[in-house]
Amino acid sequence: MRLGLPALVCFFSFVWQSECAPPTCYSRALGLSKEVMTLLDKIHTYHRTKTCAEILPPIFLDVHNSCVTAKLRDFLYVVLNHPNQYCRERPRMVLLKRKIQNLYNIITRICYRDLVFFTDDCEAIDTGHSSPYYAEDRLQLLQEER
């Protein structure tokens, strides 16, 4: 009976570890984009970094949008070259810089050709509102109904 409990605990720990799948490129990019958006929200609301966030352009990350790489590159440039030295040294701004660099590297290098982009609506990344995209067959149906 003494050996039974440790063996049972050991067995269940192996079962738990075997059910865990390693993160894929897609899941890592999706999770990191959510982390960046959460951190940006904190930076915009926290009293010590609110003034730093005034210079940051609005961005709504969507890893399914093909414009995300260009927008991330531009956003990273703004964060790296922030005009205020105080803001560049703030821990949350440093963390934001690291997360955006990681996300940009994952999308452009590590997951290159693994991610599938469903839209190319660059305005959606700036505004957060995606305009509907109609395929050619849907457009033809809309024109025929009129």
TrEMBL record:
Recorded hits in InterPro entries, A to Z, give: CYTL1
Q: Give the keywords, sorted.
A: Signal
The secretion signal range is 1-20
Biological process (GO), any one? positive regulation of transcription by RNA polymerase II
Establish whether keyword Phosphoprotein is in the entry. Answer: no
Reading the lineage from the top rank, the first entry is: Eukaryota
Its name, as the record gives it, is: Cytokine-like protein 1
